[in-house]
Amino acid sequence: MNTIVPVLLLAATFPSIYYLIALFSSWRFFQTSTRRKTGLPFTPPVSNIQPIRGLDHEAYDNFASLCRQDYPDYELLFCVGAEEDPAVPVIRKLALDFPERRIRLLIGSGRTAINDKVAKLVRLVSEAQHEVLVINDSDVRVSPDYLRSVVAPLENPAVGAVTCFYASTEDTTFAEKLQSVGMMSDFFAGILVSRQLEGMRFALGTTIVTTRANLAEFGGYQSLENRPGDDFLVGNLIAGQGHTVELLPYTVLAVSDYASFWQLIHKRLRWMVVMRHMRPAGHIGLFFTQGLPWALFAIALRPSVAAACAWLGVYLALRIGMMWIIGMHGLKRNRLWRHMPLIPLWDALAFAIWVASFFRTSLRWRDGEYNIRDGELVPVVSAPIAQ
Predict the structure, then answer these.
(1) Cβ neighbours of residue 308 closer than 8 Å, sequence gap 6 or more
(2) Would you kindly state where each structural domain of the chain is located, as residue ranges?
(3) Which among 8, 37, 49, 128 has most CB atoms closer than 10 A?
(4) Which residues contact 334 (CB under 8 A, 6 or more apart)?
(5) Any bridge partners for residue 48, and if so which?
């Protein structure tokens, strides 16, 4: 027992080591990453494509922001599943309000796939007029300099894809505030650590900039039609072809859709289950990044006021530091300091969801229930009811 306790206390320091790496990785990224400055801006013609299903909150404002780009030559393509989709009238109004923009609406993907979003992307890529593609989620809202900023890195032929950070337009509900805390202090920290240690090998769905040629090298979106995590996979597969995936210190806005605490839990658990299948070793490794439970465990091993102050003090200082460097210093989300008291609550929730992900054998996605087998979504078929 005398030997086990010091070993366990040593293990309890692993999250702090991870936090220090995250602090270094984040600080280095934001200090060394600068906006691109060239004599002649790189502005090739661009096809901005979006798969649409249903109507997001403030959808018109999101779409309209893409029409206000300070960019010489680009088109906007949207694809919906059917004429009855509620987004159709909004997109048609957009075309009337911005007659100077080339806006096209495609009805139906013409394909049958479990991942309906990817099926739409297959058609969007095939219908796009230009080689350079900018792919967004439909809840994204951008500034007029967006296309210039995210397309410019492709001037370097070594860059195969570009992606960037995102932040919520506003946090009104408790769930939205908690989500922002998780993104700024946890999810983005993990991204920057991964980038520091092995380079970017994935992309974020709010922005993926690439080319038709780069997509074709791994088989295109049609090779992902029955797989979850298509945003992650596109970046991963492009990196696997020897290209660089560049993460920009640029932030787009995403309109929050967490009306309830349970919606947040559901979406986070679904993503954790997907990651458990796609990156099993990395998913297990998250155990050693969980600072709060390890600090409480260390205090339980050596209970005292001094130990509690030391473990919890170091934990809180490092976590607050991560949120400040990423959210406030790096991404300029200056109001985040109001949400800092929620960090321990987020960490407790994230740990509980991580544990739950090992017991979840299927995931609820869109309108169905699926298992993941060999990296693909397989519908769960209910057993027939005995007569």
Answers:
(1) 299
(2) 1-39+140-365
(3) 49
(4) 328
(5) 76, 134
